[in-house]
Amino acid sequence: MKVGLFIPCYVDQFYPQIGIASLELLQKLGCEVSFPMDQTCCGQPMANSGYAHLTGGCDTNFVNNFSEFDYIVCPSGSCTLHVKDHLHSKENEAAATHIRNNVYELTEFLTDVLKVESIEGNFPYKVGMHQSCHGQRGLKLSQMSELNAAPFSKPEQLLSKIKGLELVSLSRKDECCGFGGTFCVTEEAVSVKMGQDRIKDHAAHQVDYITGGDMSCLMHLEGILKRQKSNIKVIHIAEILNSI
């Protein structure tokens, strides 16, 4: 299958190792992966700020870059959800529809499309899983705790296959970290307090690492951890799944 790798702006600019880990992981699992060099922002920041009417150029560019692929895979739940719910094209709506129906967050693609049963990874650390809001409530990557329903977590399903990894059970496993895209800019004090509360849960369980599927959330938590001079580190789930 032909897979187009869609890398979010902040990963491309600040955490390129996550894009590399995603590429290597997909290749290990037998995918024919390409990275369209002309890809840019999907338009989510503008749309979240109330300027969805200005994202037409982003949509057109996205369609031009990704319409030829069988699947589009992204190591970010929020960017994936934006494309899945909002991508349209006046010039080629059929192509936009194909993309919307075939864009997947990385762990979702591994569990639902590739149906991965085993991963030869090794990560001998105590890990807390931060489930971002878009991934959980938009993409349904894990069960919401307020529902009286059977629990599940696609990211945790994959992490359980990694040798040496000890996955802790958090007290409030689906609590928001406070990042929220532009929310952390417009409501800085509230955002920071939410992030501090989220970190307390992980720290109480004495984790070595906090992982997750959205580097935006992890970036927010990383900033707070550094200011606290904490020994806890953050790592994207793609890096763990690609570990040797």
UniProtKB/TrEMBL annotation:
InterPro entries: Cys_rich_dom. It comes from the Bacteria. This is Glycolate oxidase. Transmembrane segments: none annotated. Pfam families: CCG. It comes from Flavobacterium palustre. Residues 3-84, 127-221 form the Cysteine-rich domain.
